[in-house]
């Protein structure tokens, strides 16, 4: 089991460029999440998908779109990158325990110049 | 407003010392989790506590959930350099969306 995988690991964009961050999990989890982590701000939820075919906004959705392609894959798209989107992005999926325990990917470090 | 407040934000101790970090809230949680995050990696789940007053041990780490299910503590006995990391608490406030604290950065000096 690879768990949660994310690509790419690092990316540098210029302001206005677009890109898609890919995430896949092989644990047969229903729910998947995208977070961003910034110094002093902690983990903030961007979007989540409770099940295949559904997506919902989290705390900081502006400037992002998501696609739940199938049960395994959940992608995050930046249509027109801005310097404020410089961050580390984590994808996570929820296990089958009662407490909504999350399994995280290794992260994508994105810099927008 | 941060739902979960973690303190201290940063803690540096010598190898072999004990330490305690805290996760506090004014809200009640149905469960609370602790994660550890090492540089360049994603958070990894350490433990979930679900019952008020519950104590769980993971080797030298002891986790306690407050009686009222509003707070939690993590105690590390005889800290090792491998314990260095960002410790994140996360709670389920009832809306099925996990809320994270900002973390306790722990550095253990050899």
Describe the overall structure.
The complex is a heterodimer of chains A (113) and B (110). Chain A is mainly β and 113 residues long. Helices cover 0% and strands 50% of the residues of chain A. In chain A, 36% of the residues are buried. The mean pLDDT of chain A is 93. Chain B has strands at residues 5-7, 10-14, 19-24, 31-37, 44-49, 55-58, 61-65, 71-76, 85-92, 99-100, 104-109. Chain B is an all-beta fold and 110 residues long. The mean pLDDT of chain B is 93. The radius of gyration of chain B is 13 Å and the shape is globular. Chain B has no helices and eleven strands. The interface between A and B is medium-sized, with 21 and 23 residues.
Tag the structure with descriptive keywords.
heterodimer, A: 113 residues, mainly beta, seven-stranded mixed β-sheet, four-stranded antiparallel β-sheet, 11 strands, 0% helix, B: 110 residues, six-stranded mixed β-sheet, five-stranded antiparallel β-sheet, globular
Structure at a glance:
The complex is a heterodimer of chains A (113) and B (110). Chain A has 113 residues and is mainly beta.
Please render the helix and strand layout as text:
The complex is a heterodimer of chains A (113) and B (110).
Chain A: E1 4-7, E2 10-13, E3 19-25, E4 32-38, E5 42-49, E6 56-57, E7 65-68, E8 74-78, E9 87-94, E10 102-104, E11 108-112
Chain B: E1 5-7, E2 10-14, E3 19-24, E4 31-37, E5 44-49, E6 55-58, E7 61-65, E8 71-76, E9 85-92, E10 99-100, E11 104-109
Parallel strand pairs in B: 2-11
Antiparallel strand pairs in B: 1-3, 3-8, 4-5, 4-9, 6-7, 7-8, 9-10, 9-11
């Amino acid at each position: 089991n690879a768990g949660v995988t994310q690509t790419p690991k690092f990316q540098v964009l210029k302001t206005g460029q677009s890109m898609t961050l890919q995430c896949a999990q092989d644990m047969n989890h229903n729910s998947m999440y995208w977070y961003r982590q910034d110094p002093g701000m902690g983990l903030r939820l961007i979007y989540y998908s409770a099940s295949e075919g559904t997506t919902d906004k989290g705390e900081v959705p502006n400037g992002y779109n998501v696609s739940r392609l199938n049960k395994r894959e959940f992608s995050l798209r930046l249509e027109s990158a801005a310097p404020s989107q410089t961050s580390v992005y984590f994808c996570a999926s929820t296990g089958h325990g009662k407490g909504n325990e999350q399994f995280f990917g290794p992260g994508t470090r994105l810099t927008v110049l | 407003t941060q739902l979960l407040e973690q303190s201290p934000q940063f803690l540096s101790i010598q190898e072999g010392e004990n330490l305690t970090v805290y996760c506090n809230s004014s809200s009640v949680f149905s469960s609370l989790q602790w994660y550890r995050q090492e540089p360049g990696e994603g958070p990894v789940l350490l433990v979930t506590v679900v019952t008020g007053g519950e104590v769980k041990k993971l080797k030298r780490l002891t986790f306690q959930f407050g009686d009222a299910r509003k707070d939690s503590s993590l105690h590390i006995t005889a800290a090792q350099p491998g314990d260095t990391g960002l410790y994140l608490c996360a709670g389920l406030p009832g809306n099925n969306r996990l809320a994270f604290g900002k973390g306790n950065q722990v550095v253990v000096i050899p």
